[in-house]
Amino acid sequence: MSEKIRGLLDRIRAFMESDVYTLEQETSPKSFFSILPELEQKRMKVKEMGLWTPQVPEAWGGLGLSLAEFGQISEVLGRSPYGLFIFNCNAPDAGNIEVLISQGTEEQQERFLRPLLAGAIRSCFSMTEPEHAGSNPVEMSTTAVEVGDEYMINGHKWFTTAADGAAFAIVMAVTDPLAESPYARASQIIVPTDTPGFQRVRNISVMGEEGEGWMSHGEIVYENCRVPKSNLLGDQGAGFAVAQERLATGRIHHCMRWIGICERAFEMMCERAVTRRIGSAAPLATKQTIQNWIAESRADIDAS
Ligand SMILES: Cc1cc2nc3c(=O)[nH]c(=O)nc-3n(C[C@H](O)[C@H](O)[C@H](O)COP(=O)(O)OP(=O)(O)OC[C@H]3O[C@@H](n4cnc5c(N)ncnc54)[C@H](O)[C@@H]3O)c2cc1C
């Protein structure tokens, strides 16, 4: 690990202790929108510390971290559900930022990327459909038909994370149904969420919690939703390749932040096991079943 990353991790760990876990304790029962003012204050602080949007190249105002370096940072930020949001490197905005940097036109970067980088707006990514297995996104019913200078989008999506309150969606839709390769049929198109025909039906309950705002997963219907052709992101028919570009790196960040929250849960479990005294005044940690659970959890985390 480089000196640069070691120093960064120390600063981020200290900030998580001083600002993020405490915020979590004060606000966790509240909903996303009610805690947003406090989250915004923390985001300002991160900007002042020069740690904002660390994953993007320096030319775009970030720290220019490599994928492996950002993975290490994600592990620490992932220790709290708020960590990545406070540093503006949360899904799905981080993936949308990545794709807008690599594929966006100057006009798209000015209108959609810059406010995302500034943390002034949020965005979402609309690929998965209820009618098809999300594991295989070459199967897709949503269409974007060319009508004059516009695409007209019709389709049904779900698990569109953070659609609630997002300013725009990057939508994957079939533009070239007759292309020989199934990987060349879909395109990515930017759809502002105030476009007529964009309907957020509901936030889907995940493990019993619908959530709201950034902490939600929307079901969306696109009905005769028309956007200019200039909203095409990347080449027409290249939607699958563009999706892989963001999902491949995203898998690394997602896994690393899951390891982060697992480590934190593990630490809390151990703390509880040695401090909770049972009838005989011996702590829980003296019981074999508890020891087994701890050992198995440690092995599971290490294996990941
Ligand atoms: C919290 C959350 C957030 C999400 N956010 C977004 C988002 O922002 N945007 C978006 O577009 N989507 C999002 N998704 C959707 C996600 O991409 C899909 O859930 C995922 O691709 C899996 O698709 P599926 O749920 O349709 O499961 P399916 O594809 O139906 O899979 C069902 C089961 O079958 C298994 N399976 C599938 N194919 C095979 C195979 N060939 N061989 C063996 N087993 C197989 C899978 O592993 C799984 O266990 C999100 C999902 C979740 C849970």
Care to describe what's here?
This protein is an alpha+beta fold. It folds into three domains: 3-118, Acyl-CoA dehydrogenase/oxidase, N-terminal domain (Butyryl-Coa Dehydrogenase, subunit A, domain 1), CATH 1.10.540.10; 123-245, Beta Barrel (Butyryl-CoA Dehydrogenase, subunit A, domain 2), CATH 2.40.110.10; 249-303. The chain has helices at 3-27, 32-48, 67-77, 83-86, 93-103, 106-118, 239-275, 288-303; strands at residues 123-126, 143-147, 150-161, 168-174, 186-192, 198-203, 211-212, 215-228, 232-233. Strands 2, 3, 6, 7 and 8 form a five-stranded antiparallel β-sheet that branches. It has a four-stranded mixed β-sheet with strand order 1-4-5-9. Helix 1 runs parallel beside helix 3 and helix 3 crosses helix 7 (239-275). The chain is globular. The structure holds flavin-adenine dinucleotide (FAD). Flavin-adenine dinucleotide binds at residues 92, 125-128, 133-135, 159-161, 206, 217.
